Amino acid sequence: MTKRASTFVLTAFAFIVITSSSAFAQKAPEFSNDLMMDDQSYGYLIAEKLEYRSVPGINPIMWEVQGYVGKDLNKFWFKSHGEALTTEREAEMEFQGLYSRAIGPYFNIQGGIRYDLAYEGGGNKSRGFAVIGLQGMAPYFFHVDGGMFISGNGDISASVEAEYDLLFTQRLIGQPIFETSVALQDVPEWGVGSGFKNVGLGFRLRYEFAREFAPYIGINWERKLGETADMARAGSGHVNKLSLLGGVRMWF
C-alpha cells in the first residue's frame, strides 16, 4: 500500500512539473507598447527634385522637397516646390503643412494649409489656401499626389502629379512624370485662367550611387492651356517650354 502511494505521489509530482513547464513555455510575453501598431515614430525628408533647367532666356532652378514626422496612421507632412530664375529677380514658391491619415495600405488622405509667395522685380505677392489631398501608390505602382485648393478669396483649383519608376538595373532608374492642374475661376493677378491651366510631361534618368543620393539628367515639356495661355501671351510670357535638365535626388 505504501509502495502504491509512493508511486502515485511520484507520478502526480512528475505530471505537475511537466505541465507547469509546458505552460511556462507557452506563456505570452509581457505587454509592451512596442508591440502595438502605430506606436513607433518616424521622420523622413526627401528632395525629389533639385535641378537646373536649360530654357532660353530664363534658365530656372527648380526644387521639390517634402517630408513627414509621425506614426504609421497619423503624420504631419511638409511640402515645398517652386522655381527661381537665374537671369532675373523673380521666383515663385509654394509651401504646405498637412495632417495626413492612412486610409489603407497604399493611400493617405491629407488636409491643411498652403501658402504661395512670388517675387517680381522689387515687389512680391502672396496668397493662402485650405487644402484637401490624396497621396499614395495607385495600381501598377504609380505614385500619385493630388490636391484641391480653396483660396482665401474663395477661388477653387486642383492639381495632380503622377510618376513611375522604371528599373533598368538596380541603380539605373528612369522616371516618367505627368502633371496637370485646373482652376474654376480666373485669377488675373496670378496669371490663372479658368479651365485646365497647364499640362507637363517629363522624364528623368537617375543613377543611385546610394539609395539616398542619385544625380540625374532629363527632359521636361510644359504647356499652358486655355485662358491661362491667353494671359501668358498677353503678358509676353512663355506658353510652351521644352527644357533639358540636370539635378540630384536625395533623401534622409
Automatic annotation (TrEMBL):
Signal peptide coordinates: 1-25
GO biological process entries: intracellular copper ion homeostasis
Entry superkingdom: Bacteria
Alphabetized UniProt keyword annotations: Signal
GO function term, MF aspect, one: copper ion binding
Single GO cellular component term: cell outer membrane
InterPro entries per the UniProt record, alphabetical: Cu-R_B_prcur (IPR007939)
Keyword Nuclease: no
UniProt name for this protein: Copper resistance protein B
Species annotation: Fodinibius salinus
